[in-house]
């Protein structure tokens, strides 16, 4: 009898202690990299983003401090339904805490809702739409690297000021293209320019000649490419073929990645102006990171800004976790902590996570080098100007994020 | 009105790719009864071979036009000898599944090594620049594509419909046993025909390399449209596939002008309409 009672007491004690462990913070983190692993954005994000996440986990040093960090990755195939299904499964079955990367604005917005519903953490680096920190902002979301507002303001403003006051848009027909066109149009008109026309093309179009002819006929000084990845490279390549630049019109690649320049080739891409927030050859820190990164990439490619954003975003996330002393498995709480710590990392420099989830850091205006100026296989960019972080992104008083109206 | 002319011409340019590819498919289907889903992957290989020839061997575009189809054609013949020939008597579905699998494997391998954003291949110097036609600026290279593919299409049609060799081929499809009785090596002829169809795909790949990116998925994006072209034209009809190829390019071009959002679905809408009205395709005969 005595034994039974003590056994019961012991059992209760064990049960209680187990229960208290489960409810309190532990040091277990599971991260899911959700990306386009095989489609048109796979080179600028994809496997490279997974590598960046892996490097962030290693560099955080948390493992040595007793943390267990797991990493999984998934392929959303640029389809919102697939993206949300994977995200749901990750939260419900695999007990993932944090979803990172998610290029393709359409998928990114869909996943945004899932993460909010499941109270996870969402560190987006790959998507462009500024809606993530405006109309559709969420207490669980941090948006790193870039957005359509930033691209529109940096590139758009520079071009209008240089005399490009009439615009024609080639726009990818989905959430991203629409957002980029909208934000750029606002900049163009605010600076006294005019949008004379535009055409929406399906995502992943091989032939742009019809659209380019319409752009040519519009006589606009600037042809704004509100598209990305393979769509942008094909537009630029074919625009050269149709003599558009020689005819006096200028192309504005509103979103151009390192891998796109590689795909177009310097011969055709030279002279293009565009904006990015990271370039491997920017300073000693970026060069050091890129060297380690490309040594582990299959084709020795240096990181794109999206991949760099995955790394930096996770590093900041780990800082917040460490400051919390454990993982509360409460996305909103972790993101709130991330907002209280100023960001400071070797790739993007100093900045902050604003109340709407937007991360601010410097943005750089680049020009693509001439083939004769390029000294190595990835030596593509010339730095033309810098937009300070506090001016590059949506000012908080203009943000339509509901989190700001408390 | 000027814009309309320009769109018609642009449509013809795209149509020439559709025509070359659907012609190859029609030849293979007509002679081998195989629905060759690997066609897009072979088209992509053509472009990649051209890229390698230029960057590794220093062999220019003009030689690539000749060499790439031969190399890819040989690859195709090996496929036919080692795999496809065993499916000869079976349902179409088996050939379709096998070639679809081959396409996925080939694309996967290329994607693994070359990523997805593609490699640059520039227009040969002789064909750079363009001419102003008054209603549009026509890049010389595009004009070349239209003329060259038209010539290749007609030559293929002539070879199969008007020559002795073509007559053997057609006879061998009708009744292989009887043709074999005349002392003609039917299996070898079938292998060569598959090689020819594949070579046409590779040729289209080389032609498109300077226009589009040389990308592992360039064929996957195109092949579905080309299949729709073949279905509309009538499976296995040589002239039908050439004419529909060009015609659909033009229709697609016009859609890009009047309602661009629908430009990548218009071909399929037409396909549905044609299948409802005339299930054998526009030029196909009832089996």
TrEMBL record, chain B:
<keyword id="KW-0029">Amino-acid transport</keyword>
<feature type="transmembrane region" description="Helical">
    <location>
        <begin position="34"/>
        <end position="54"/>
    </location>
</feature>
<feature type="transmembrane region" description="Helical">
    <location>
        <begin position="258"/>
        <end position="277"/>
    </location>
</feature>
<feature type="transmembrane region" description="Helical">
    <location>
        <begin position="190"/>
        <end position="211"/>
    </location>
</feature>
<feature type="transmembrane region" description="Helical">
    <location>
        <begin position="91"/>
        <end position="110"/>
    </location>
</feature>
<keyword id="KW-0812">Transmembrane</keyword>
<feature type="transmembrane region" description="Helical">
    <location>
        <begin position="223"/>
        <end position="251"/>
    </location>
</feature>
<keyword id="KW-1003">Cell membrane</keyword>
<dbReference type="InterPro" id="IPR052157">
    <property type="entry name" value="BCAA_transport_permease"/>
</dbReference>
<comment type="similarity">
    <text>Belongs to the binding-protein-dependent transport system permease family. LivHM subfamily.</text>
</comment>
<keyword id="KW-1133">Transmembrane helix</keyword>
<feature type="transmembrane region" description="Helical">
    <location>
        <begin position="60"/>
        <end position="79"/>
    </location>
</feature>
<keyword id="KW-0472">Membrane</keyword>
<keyword id="KW-0813">Transport</keyword>
<dbReference type="GO" id="GO:0022857">
    <property type="term" value="F:transmembrane transporter activity"/>
</dbReference>
<feature type="transmembrane region" description="Helical">
    <location>
        <begin position="141"/>
        <end position="160"/>
    </location>
</feature>
<protein>
    <submittedName>
        <fullName>Amino acid/amide ABC transporter membrane protein 1 (HAAT family)</fullName>
    </submittedName>
</protein>
<dbReference type="GO" id="GO:0005886">
    <property type="term" value="C:plasma membrane"/>
</dbReference>
<dbReference type="Pfam" id="PF02653">
    <property type="entry name" value="BPD_transp_2"/>
</dbReference>
<dbReference type="GO" id="GO:0006865">
    <property type="term" value="P:amino acid transport"/>
</dbReference>
<feature type="transmembrane region" description="Helical">
    <location>
        <begin position="6"/>
        <end position="27"/>
    </location>
</feature>
<dbReference type="InterPro" id="IPR001851">
    <property type="entry name" value="ABC_transp_permease"/>
</dbReference>
């Amino acid at each position: 009898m005595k034994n039974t009672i003590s056994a019961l007491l012991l059992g209760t004690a064990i049960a209680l202690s187990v229960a208290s462990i489960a409810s309190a913070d532990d040091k277990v983190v599971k991260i899911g990299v959700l990306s386009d692993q095989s489609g048109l954005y796979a080179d600028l994000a994809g496997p490279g983003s997974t590598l960046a996440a892996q490097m962030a986990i290693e560099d955080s040093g948390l493992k040595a401090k007793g943390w267990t960090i797991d990493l999984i990755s998934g392929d959303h195939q640029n389809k919102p339904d697939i993206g949300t299904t994977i995200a749901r499964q990750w939260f419900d079955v695999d007990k993932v805490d944090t979803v990172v990367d998610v290029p393709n604005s359409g998928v990114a917005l869909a996943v945004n809702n899932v993460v909010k519903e499941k109270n996870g953490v969402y560190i987006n680096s790959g998507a462009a739409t500024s809606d993530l920190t405006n109309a559709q902002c969420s207490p669980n979301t941090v948006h790193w690297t870039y957005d359509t507002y930033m691209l529109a303001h940096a590139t758009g403003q520079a071009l209008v000021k240089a005399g490009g006051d009439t615009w024609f848009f080639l726009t990818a027909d989905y959430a991203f293209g629409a957002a980029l066109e909208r934000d750029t149009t606002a900049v163009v008109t605010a600076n006294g320019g005019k949008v004379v026309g535009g055409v929406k093309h399906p995502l992943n179009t091989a032939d742009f000649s019809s659209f380019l002819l319409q752009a040519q006929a519009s006589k606009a000084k600037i042809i704004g490419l509100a598209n990305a990845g393979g769509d942008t490279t094909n537009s630029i390549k074919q625009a050269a073929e149709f003599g558009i630049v020689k005819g006096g019109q200028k192309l504005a690649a509103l979103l151009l990645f390192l891998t796109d320049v590689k795909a177009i080739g310097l011969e055709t891409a030279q002279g293009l102006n565009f904006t990015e927030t990271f370039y491997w050859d920017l300073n000693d820190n970026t060069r050091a990171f890129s060297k380690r990164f490309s040594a582990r990439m299959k084709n020795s490619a240096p990181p794109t800004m999206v991949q760099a954003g995955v790394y930096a975003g996770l590093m900041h996330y780990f800082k917040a976790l460490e400051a919390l002393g454990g993982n509360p498995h409460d996305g909103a709480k972790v993101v709130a902590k991330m907002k209280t710590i100023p960001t400071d990392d070797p790739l993007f420099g100093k900045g902050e996570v604003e109340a709407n989830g937007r991360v601010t850091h410097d943005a750089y205006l680049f020009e693509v080098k001439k083939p004769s100026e390029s000294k190595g296989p990835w030596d593509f960019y010339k730095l033309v100007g810098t937009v300070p972080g506090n001016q590059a992104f949506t000012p908080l008083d203009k943000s339509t994020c509901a989190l700001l109206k408390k | 009105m000027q814009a309309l002319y320009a769109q018609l011409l642009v449509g013809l340019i795209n149509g020439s790719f559709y025509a070359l590819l659907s012609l190859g498919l029609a030849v293979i289907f007509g002679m081998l009864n195989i629905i060759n889903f690997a066609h897009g992957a072979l088209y992509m290989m053509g472009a990649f071979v051209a890229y390698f020839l230029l960057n590794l061997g220093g062999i220019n575009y003009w030689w690539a036009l000749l060499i790439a189809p031969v190399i890819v054609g040989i690859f195709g013949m090996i496929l036919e000898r080692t795999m496809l020939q065993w499916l000869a008597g079976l349902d179409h579905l088996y050939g379709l599944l096998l070639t679809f699998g081959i396409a996925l494997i080939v694309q996967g391998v290329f994607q693994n090594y070359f990523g997805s954003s593609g490699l640059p291949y520039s227009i040969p110097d002789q064909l750079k620049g363009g001419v102003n036609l008054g209603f549009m600026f026509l890049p010389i290279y595009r004009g070349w594509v239209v003329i060259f593919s038209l010539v290749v299409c007609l030559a293929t049609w002539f070879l199969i419909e008007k020559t002795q060799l073509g007559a053997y081929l057609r006879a061998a499809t009708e009744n292989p046993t009887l043709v074999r009785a005349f002392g003609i090596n039917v299996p070898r002829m079938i292998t060569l025909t598959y090689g020819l169809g594949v070579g046409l795909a590779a040729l289209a790949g080389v032609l498109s390399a300077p226009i589009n990116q040389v990308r592992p998925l360039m064929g996957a994006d195109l092949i579905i449209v080309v299949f729709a072209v073949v279905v509309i034209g009538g499976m296995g009809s040589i002239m039908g596939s050439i004419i529909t190829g060009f015609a659909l390019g033009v229709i697609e071009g016009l859609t890009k002008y009047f309602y661009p959002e629908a430009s990548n679905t218009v071909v399929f809408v037409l396909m549905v309409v044609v299948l409802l009205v005339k299930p054998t395709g526009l030029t196909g005969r009832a089996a």
